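Recall the central idea of this unit: under ordinary conditions, the amino acid sequence of a chain determines the structure it adopts. In this exercise we apply that idea directly, starting from the sequence alone.
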Amino acid sequence: AEGIGFAIPIDSAKPISDQLENSGQVVRPFMGVEIYSLEEVPKTEWRSTLKLPEEVEGGVYIWSIEPLSPADNAGLKRLDVITEFDGKKVLNILDLRKILYQEKDVGDQVDLVYYRNGEKHQTTITLEEQK
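Accordingly, the structure predicted from this sequence is:
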């Protein structure tokens, strides 16, 4: 009645429909983190709490990590800030989800660049299926 419509891009819908037709379930790669975009945090907290250097333009911060998850096994910690995922810049949660769900599969190894207490680090995470 209101003339409002919703559309899902075929590039997002097709892999999901194929998985449902072939196996009856959707399997997505899993990191085991609860994350939020830095843009949700005041810039003053970027410097004072997260201790991010000036050159950091965005990213996602880890709020919690599931024990024994891929992120836990890779050594990530609460309040780490992910700025690159597999060589691609991550400015917000949408960037990370796009790479994770559209370009990666269960079992893939992914290089992460992250900041912890103002220091830049790199690690490799092996994506798993969520159990």
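Residues 10-23 form the longest helix (14 residues).
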